[in-house]
């Protein structure tokens, strides 16, 4: 049997995800050879600017996609949160793996919860989605820029640059640092980003051999949820980094989908939700987006584009 080559970024979290896919493939297909092709993306090289200013989240995946298109790799493993809404011709998502904890984590060396932070405390995050929801709850907080991989962010917290930082719980759990999570923000405090906590696999759409090999790694529950979340994001044109949250849960065969668009200062937060059968998530996700647009989401989002 042929060798499967996995394109991955070199950050600890990206490598964990690629190793996970390699381990699962080898588990389901004994005798299969799986190799990692490690690459550095523009998003990893430029760490001193907000993502939105240097080209958005697509920066993390473009180099991996080029490797697929040029035949240097067969599959690309991504955090679903970082996967753009559309794909180059000939590429597409084949597989969505079981979701890890989807919530945002409150991480601090001195405080155990958001509401314990003193007046004016400094909180690190460069996500407008987190910023607007934190400021809504705590307008007194000083939100400060924080980018870099998980270890870099934790080092900056430990240096004393922040009273607390907010990170995806999934990244900390996967890197065996769950002990850094003081508590997870509830979905009422901070609604997660579309796809947060899920790993997705992109392939050349015509490659049916690879598609077959990956089939046992797919988790339909996660896929139904994440596709609904992404449909909402796509309708809002969540292309570059934007203050948009979308999260869905399965309750039996029913999807409960919630979306949010916020003004970065937290003074306006628009919210919408819907329920639908799990097979209707994409249509329902679009409906949630349209409810947000009716409330004025487009005004908030287009003001950001012109900043
Ligand atoms: N934007 C970077 C990124 N992409 C995926 C994760 C975490 C894990 C995940 O959502 O799967 C992170 C780090 C973070 O937001 O703290």
Automatic annotation (TrEMBL):
**Domain of life per record:** Bacteria
Q: Any binding details for the cofactor?
A: Binds 1 dipyrromethane group covalently.
Please give the PROSITE patterns that the UniProt record associates with this protein: PORPHOBILINOGEN_DEAM
Q: What is the required cofactor set for this protein?
A: dipyrromethane
Q: Which residues carry this modification: S-(dipyrrolylmethanemethyl)cysteine?
A: 240
Q: Which Pfam families match?
A: Porphobil_deam, Porphobil_deamC
Official protein name in the record: Porphobilinogen deaminase
Q: Quaternary arrangement and interactors, per the entry?
A: Monomer.
User: Which species?
Assistant: Endozoicomonas lisbonensis
Q: Which GO terms describe its molecular function?
A: hydroxymethylbilane synthase activity
Q: In which pathway does it act?
A: Porphyrin-containing compound metabolism; protoporphyrin-IX biosynthesis; coproporphyrinogen-III from 5-aminolevulinate: step 2/4
Q: Where is the Porphobilinogen deaminase N-terminal domain?
A: 4-211
Q: What is its EC number?
A: 2.5.1.61
Q: What else is known?
A: The porphobilinogen subunits are added to the dipyrromethane group.
Q: Where is the Porphobilinogen deaminase C-terminal domain?
A: 225-294
Encoding gene per record = hemC
